[in-house]
Amino acid sequence: MIPLQEAQDYVLGKVPKLPAEDLEITSACSHVIAKAVTSGELVPPFDNTAVDGYAVRAADTDGASGNNEVSLEVIGTVPAGSQPNFEIQGGQSAKIMTGAPLPRGADAVVMVEWTNSSDDGRTVHISRGVEQGAHIRRAGEDLQPGDQVISEGTLLTPAHIGLLAGIGVYQVSAVRRPVVGIFSTGDELVEGTQALAPGQIRDSNRFSLMALLERDGFETVNLGLIHDDKGAIESTIREGVDICDVLLTTGGVSMGDYDYVKVVLNEMGDMRWMQIAIKPAKPFAFGMVQDVPVFGLPGNPVSSMVSYLLLAKPSLYKMMGRKNVFPDHLSGIAADDFHRRADGKTHFVRAFLHQENHQTFLSPVWKQGSHQLSGMAEADTLAIIPDGEGSPKGSPVEFFRI
After folding, report:
1. Which of 282, 298, 319 is the last residue of a domain?
2. What kind and span of H or E run contains 377?
3. Are residues 162 and 75 in the same domain?
4. For residue 259, what pLDDT band results from cuts at 50, 70 and 90?
5. In terms of domains, do 8 and 33 share one?
6. What interhelical angle do 230-243 and 260-268 show, nearest 10?
7. What's 274's domain CATH number?
8. Are residues 339 and 372 in the same domain?
9. I want to staple 35 with a disulfide (CB 3.0 to 4.6 A). Which of 120, 135, 173, 227 is the partner?
10. How many other C-beta atoms are found inside a 10 Å radius of the C-beta of residue 67?
11. Range of the domain at 167
């Protein structure tokens, strides 16, 4: 067996970063930007009010209070999107809406909550004084021309998309996300609602893995369920490498006599077959077929998901240009005993979290078998239990969210 980090380092050292492409910002979220973006504009482009209220000269509000209101003449209204054509003089004000430009002469805004308007709207009574600059957004206080808006290598979030639109940038250069082809193998597998014959089980791996891939932002190509036939497996792999950036198989990577995936991949590519010191997901394969990375995940349903999380997902993140490819490891407290025995492996125990008194507690789910997807479905976390006798209740436990 080899350590997990050795397997991860090997795979990450082999997978390539994909090229960049020009994308409209409406489809660029969750892509990694390939070229830094700078602003060509002031943001905001002009001084404007942050609140609904009245534009004033701050000095005119000195001493205003609930018992000593200051009354000012209202000489106009400034809605958002307009340009005021008047100037505020001493003793005057203008009703103003959030985002509207300040009229000349005004140096502060009084919030509408601190005012009362006369019945005819020509006078406003102010119950709280303000200082110069109060409730004003200054031109360029967010961005100046030439400021770097987004650095190269940034994973674009919805806020980045809005930021780009806000400076008039509607197309960016971003690293292409991998297209992942996936297929299952095994004569025992069936798909559909038909009754199971003796020895048959339903194919679940392909569906859970496609869901994981799509949740994590990758496009999937369903290459189907392939029976243990050497020619059919070879044909599927050839189809996959022609149309996909990555191939992901599930099943046929262990030591069985009928693991034709291993035979075919050895003939078609440069493969490494590994036994990793982890539980579940000990068997794993990786290699290149016509420069396309191929991940061979184990056939047990939970093992295939854990193998994806620990090995395939970080590699796909690297291919799409992400800098941080591994999940954040966090620390909690064992709410129950995490039993195990020493076997030379790190155990990734399916668990769930709860918060109590600002602390995070972890409990293992009851079903821990590598074939028991119901246990995986109950879990929101993988607890990392090092080799040894386990982690007793009350001890610290490292984990990451799934």
Report:
1. 319
2. helix 373-378
3. no
4. confident
5. no
6. 50
7. 3.40.980.10
8. yes
9. 173
10. 6
11. 20-43+144-175
Sign of CA dihedral 128, 132, 134, 136: positive
In a domain, 325, yes or no: no
Side chain identity at 55, as an amino acid letter?
A: A
pTM over 0.85: yes
The token pair at 131 is: 């200082």
- Are 315 and 233 in a shared domain? yes
The rounded distance, in Å, linking the Cα atoms of 126 and 344 is 75
Summarised one tens digit per residue, pLDDT across range 110-156 is: 999 999 999 999 999 999 999 999 999 999 999 999 999 999 999 99
Rounded to 5, what percent of the chain is helix, strand, coil? Answer: 20, 35, 45
Supply the DSSP symbol for 10.
H
E-assigned strand segments in 61-162: 70-78, 92-96, 108-111, 115-117, 123-126, 136-137, 148-150
Check the CA dihedral 152-157-159-165 and report its sign.
positive
Are the CB atoms for 260 and 230 separated by under 8 Å?
Answer: yes
Q: What is the pLDDT of residues 35-44, one digit of tens each?
A: 999 999 999 9
Question: Is residue 157 located within the same domain as residue 124?
Answer: no
Task: With a cut of 90, say whether residue 159 has pLDDT above it.
Answer: yes
Instruction: Check which CATH number belongs to the domain holding 169 and give it.
Output: 3.90.105.10
21 contacts: CB under 8 Å, gap ≥ 6 = 173, 174, 176
Number of domains in the chain: 4
Residues 181 and 267 in one domain: yes
SS (H, E, C) 82-149: CCCCCECCCCEEEEECCCCECCECCCEEEEHHHEEECCCCCEEEECCCCCCCCCEECCCCCECCCCEE
**394 touches 336 (CB < 8 A):** no
Q: For the chain, first and last CA: distance in Å?
A: 25
Tokens representing 138?
Answer: 């200054």
My answer on whether 182 and 295 are in the same domain is yes
Main-chain dihedrals φ then ψ at residue 16, nearest 5 degrees: -90, 155
In this prediction, residue 186 has a pLDDT band, given cuts at 50, 70 and 90, of: confident
- Asked whether the CA dihedral 215, 221, 222, 227 is positive or negative, the reply is negative
> 287, 319, 351 — which closes off a domain?
319
Using an 8 Å Cβ cutoff, are 391 and 385 in contact?
A: yes
Q: Decide if 246 is inside a domain.
A: yes
One domain, residues 149 and 260: no
